[in-house]
Amino acid sequence: PHQGEAVPAGAAFIGDSHDVAIASYDGRVYTWETDLDRALGSACQMAGRNLTEEEWEEFLPEQPYRDVCPET
User: Fold this and answer.
1) What angle do CA 3, 7, 11 make, to 5 degrees?
2) pTM of the shown model
3) Mean pLDDT of 6-17
């Protein structure tokens, strides 16, 4: 990990969802979306646009690039 990054202490799926709760040694809890379509929808909402090819390659290198966000 890089300086300032949380180090995971444990992880578990939340109920029957696709969300994973990750607890870190510093006491913080993070949630992570593991359903690709839902994660892409969240990314579209945050960015307000499609991901660039560079962003796609960084976060989804195993997936072929495609436009996933509705036209804005």
Assistant:
1) 155
2) 0.50
3) 84
